[in-house]
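Dear support,

I submitted the protein below through the web form. The confirmation email said the job was done, but the results page showed an empty box. After a refresh the structure appeared. I'm attaching both so you can tell me whether what I see now is the final result or a partial one.
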Amino acid sequence: MTKIAILGHGFLGKSLVDYLAHEQRQLHVLCRTRPILDGIAGVRFQIGDAGDRTTLESVITSGLTVFAVGSTFPSLTPTQLHTYASREKEILQLALQVTAERGGQFVYLSSSAIYGEVPVGRASESAIPAPISVYGHHKLACEKFCLEQAKTFDLPLTILRLSNPFGPRQIAERRQGLIGIVLDNVRIGRPTQVRGDGSAIRDYVPVNVVSAVIQRLAENLGRSVPTILNVCSGEGLSTYDVLDRLSSWLGHPIEVESIPPAAGEIQRSVLDPERLCHWAPRLPGTSFSAGLAALGSNIKNPIQ
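What the results page shows now:
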């Protein structure tokens, strides 16, 4: 039976449970508060602090451990992020140690933010990281820490650099990511703020792709897998491209409010999916339209 420990139950943690829950898998999920939906076949929720060793030992097994603690908080202020980053690194070290002791494999969910500006083409895993944001610097520091600890403990490690994942669970969470923010605004009748001329380009990937990659990793325990993988679509979309596609999908215009551009904001970030496609062919649709289809009709009509 496949065993997967998921540390964290936010947008990504919940999405992993949605996709991976199956009676033939054993999911151990660490969360801070009891989830609304409990009693899912093959899923055991553990309420506790990720920084507590005893709690981690009750969740982490000899299978795959996915570190989804604080993996999607780029909107925090620099001061908040600094405070959170110090805490995350302590938790990360403990989780790596326990996973090594259990003889498992570790997955760290990183971000496309570590690449910084990608002015042309697509950033491959071999590109030299050049983060601009505090968040990007933090994720890169965590990557380096994971690599150091994995070498020390002789621990199998995979780092997934996620490029703006989106999906249904994002809608119910704190306002994370452009797509989640837009749909939340539509639901409550608030205009969406667009910085500058809306030409900033990003690479968006459906969260089901992230979950499918985790599933492949769990199925390949003990086998050789890439240490670093971009999890992305490879398609660059501007803010207004996204708004146009969402508007067509919703069937009505989206109200927009222009605001000044943010200082130091990345203008273009598109990743290269070639290594991912070679290692894991036949993944679920990575396109933007495939991600919209997965959002579901309950989100398509959010005001009703």
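Response: this is the final, complete result; the empty box was a page-load delay. The first helix runs from residue 11 to 20.
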